[in-house]
Amino acid sequence: MPDRFRDRVFRKAVPAGVIETIGIGTDGGIVRLTDGSLLLAQGGSAAWSGAQVLARYSHNDGQTWETPTPFPAPIGVGGMIRLHSGALAAYGNALEANADSRSAFFSKSLDDGRTWSEPSVIYDYPNLTHLFHSLIQLKSGRLLFAVYWEGFDAWEPVNGGAGGVLGVHPELQYADVCTYGTWRGERYAVEGHGHAPEMGMTLVYRSDDDGATWQKHPGGLMGWFDSEGVVNGNGGQTGCYEPTLAETRDGHVLLLMRSTVGRLVQSVSIDEGEHWTAVKPSDLPSSESPGVLVSVPETDDLLIIWNQVSREEIRRGYRRGRLSSAISRDGGHSWEQFKTLEVSEGLEDLERIPPEYPLQMVRARDDVGPLPEGWAFFHYPNIDIVDDLVIVRYSRGTPLLGVAEQNLHLDETVLRVYPIAWFYA
Q1: What rounded mean pLDDT belongs to the chain?
Q2: SS3 call for 409
Q3: Closest by alpha carbon to 369, among 192, 194, 195, 180?
Q4: 56 and 142 both lie in a single domain
Q5: Contact between 306 and 381 (Cβ < 8 Å)
Q6: What's the domain range around 187?
Q7: 171, 175, 129, 125: which is closest to 148 by C-alpha?
Q8: Exposure string for 121-139, b = 16+ CB within 10 A, e = fewer
């Protein structure tokens, strides 16, 4: 990847003591092996990066990584965690490059990834998709796996990129209804999903036999609240995409989801994922973009990284222009220790944005006009906590590297190793 970001004006300085590596990739998971090294296993399915699973190893806590080598997992590795038993657990799609099933599989390794169990099927249903850190294990031992259904018809190249929504409505073709802006005199798409007909819901699967069999909670989760966040249906239905979940200190499970109303939306389970409360808006301002939520092992606090932007910033074409973090010490009821990891030129370097009303569809204007030289976006974060290190991976892009979802394959991928104290400082 060309070194196009080093001196750009939008860059926040990498904090002292934080290691940054480019080009590692954002999928998969990172675990500590019994010999003390770090293992990153990733890829291996059409949904990610081809038909081969690859492994990278680090022997210095993520400061440097070895050249990737083939990894013997029997499924694509979209994510990987270490179970309470000490086994490694991975989830992902089928390895076959021509597989037309969107099934997700689960497999375990008892020897740090050298051999793996016969995969079990988590789900076998069209149009279901999983994201990073979709799999968690509760203190009780139960496994939870969060996925989402997204309703659109197909994908077809847009603007020469990797994909764009192709609907059945001729007057609402994706490239025609996107938001556009002007950068260096050229017209670029800067936002698309909120301008084409889509719908989505979140589903959660659970396993009480260490991943051998899986059950789904009843129904699916969608928003049904009004402009003040009251659950009464007066605001119509709100999609809930790309979920992320974590166990809280009191043993509940918090589920946060991407939505279209200028907030991350949330649901809570008090029975370990069998049932979920009605979806409500969280207090975390966000564009229609995913975040990633994890539980901090030593404290049971929650750590989130997401696109924190105001409604007006979204309207101006910056829906993924700021990447933020926050901590919750009370299971997501309140958030503190807000920090900015990255910010685009054209946005203020703010730590916290207050939640806004009314809750309603918010998206960029059809044409946002000239974009600054350092216009950029940062999105799809992934987090792995290893001992006292927080390893954050995400993608960033500019018009030079591809714009928004049309050219995800051209984004620059970033891996940063933070001391966990940085998020609390």
Answers
A1: 89
A2: helix
A3: 180
A4: no
A5: yes
A6: 19-26+132-423
A7: 129
A8: ebbeeeebbbbbbbbbbbe
Q: Is 90 helix (H, G, I), strand (E, B) or coil?
A: strand
Q: Are 71 and 77 in contact (CB under 8 A)?
A: yes
List CB contacts of 49: < 8 A, sequence separation 6 or more. 25, 27, 42, 43
Same domain, 80 and 140: no
Q: What is the pLDDT of residues 369-405, one digit of tens each?
A: 999 988 999 999 999 999 999 999 999 888 766 555 5
Q: Extract the tokens encoding 274.
A: 């069998």
| Stretch (H or E) spanning 311 | helix 311-315
* Same domain flag for 41 and 157: no
| Tokens, residue 149 | 């259904």
Q: Hey, what are 383's tokens? A: 């987090």
Distance CA 202, CA 222 (A): 7
Residue 264 per-residue DSSP state: E
User: Within a domain: residue 3?
Assistant: no
Residue 77 placed within a domain:
yes
What distance separates the 2 farthest-apart alpha carbons in the chain?
A: 58
pLDDT in tens, 107-147: 999 999 999 999 999 998 877 888 888 999 999 999 999 99
The residues facing 318 across adjacent strands are none
Residues 124 and 272 in one domain: no
**Residues 56 and 197 both lie in one domain:** no
Q: Are residues 253 and 356 in the same domain?
A: yes
Last residue of a domain, one of 100, 129, 158: 129
CATH code of 181's domain: 2.120.10
Give the Cα separation of 71 and 115 in Å (integer): 10
How far is the C-alpha of 41 from the C-alpha of 219, rounded, in Å? Answer: 32
Distance CA 331, CA 308 (A): 19
Q: Which pairing describes strands 53-58 and 69-70: parallel, antiparallel, or unpaired?
A: antiparallel
Which pair of structure tokens corresponds to residue 7? Answer: 């001196």
Question: What is the pLDDT confidence band of residue 157, given thresholds at 50, 70 and 90?
Answer: very low
Residue 13 belongs to some domain of the structure: no
8 within a domain of the structure (yes/no): no
Residue 307 is given by DSSP the state -
Q: How many CA atoms does the CB half-sphere of 318 hold within 13 Å?
A: 24
Asked if the model's pLDDT at residue 6 lies above 90, the reply is no
